[in-house]
Write a structure and sequence with these properties.
Layout: H1 2-30, H2 34-41, E1 48-50, E2 66-74, E3 80-84, E4 91-97, E5 102-107, E6 116-121, H3 123-131, E7 141-144, E8 149-157, H4 164-172, E9 175-178
C-alpha cells in the first residue's frame, strides 16, 4: 500500500513540475514574449511608439491616459544612453532584460531635474566609466545590466486632451543612443 501511495505522489509531483516547465517555457518557443515584440518594432537603439491596439509586433498600450514608447538595445559593445525631457505631468521608465525581467525603473519624481538621463551598461563598462566619469554623465543615473540585450519602456501621462501634444513630443524627442566610452562630452554614436 505504501508503494502505491508513493508512486501516486511521485506521479502527481512529476506532472505538476512538467506543466510548470511547459508554461514557463511557452513564451520562449512561441516568440510572443515582450522582447520579441519590441525587436519586431524596428532597429535597435531607437524609440518606437506603442499604439492603443496591437500592431504587427503584438504590442499595445490599452490605457487611454498613457502614451508609451519602447526601445530595444544591445550593450555588448557599447553602453546605451537614454535621454528625454519635456513638460509632461508624469513619466516613468522601466528597463528589462531580454527575458522581460525588470532590471531598473524610475519616474519623474525620482530623477535629477525631472528629465530622463540614464546610462545602461555592462558591469565591465561601468567600472571603466566610473574610473574617469565624463562630465557629460555627471548627472546621469548609471544602471548596471547583467545581460547584454534588453529593452526600455518609456511612458508618459496625458490625462487631458490638452496634454496629448506635450506627451507625444516627449516621446518623439526621447533618444536611446549607443554611448562611446571615452567620447567627447555630449557625444554619442549611432549604430
Amino acid at each position: 500500500m505504501l508503494k502505491i501511495v508513493f508512486t501516486v505522489i511521485t506521479g502527481l509531483v512529476g506532472a505538476a513540475l512538467l506543466h510548470l516547465i511547459i508554461i514557463l517555457a511557452l513564451p520562449h518557443f512561441t516568440g510572443l514574449d515582450a522582447y520579441t515584440g519590441v525587436l519586431a518594432k524596428g532597429d535597435l537603439n531607437r524609440f518606437y511608439g506603442v499604439g492603443k491596439r496591437p500592431d504587427g509586433s503584438g504590442l499595445s498600450d490599452g490605457d487611454p491616459f498613457l502614451q508609451s514608447a519602447v526601445c530595444a538595445f544591445d550593450i555588448e559593445d557599447q553602453p546605451v544612453r537614454l535621454v528625454a525631457g519635456g513638460d509632461v505631468p508624469f513619466w516613468s521608465l522601466a528597463i528589462y532584460d531580454s527575458s522581460s525581467n525588470e532590471v531598473f525603473s524610475m519616474n519623474d519624481r525620482t530623477s535629477v531635474d525631472g528629465g530622463v538621463d540614464v546610462l545602461v551598461a555592462s558591469p565591465v563598462a561601468l567600472t571603466t566609466l566610473r574610473k574617469a566619469l565624463p562630465e557629460s554623465l555627471s548627472q546621469s543615473i548609471l544602471v548596471e545590466m547583467p545581460r547584454a540585450e534588453g529593452y526600455v519602456v518609456l511612458r508618459t501621462l496625458s490625462p487631458r486632451k490638452s496634454l496629448e501634444d506635450a506627451a507625444q513630443a516627449f516621446l518623439a524627442g526621447a533618444t536611446c543612443d549607443a554611448f562611446a566610452i571615452g567620447a567627447t562630452p555630449g557625444a554619442s554614436s549611432d549604430q
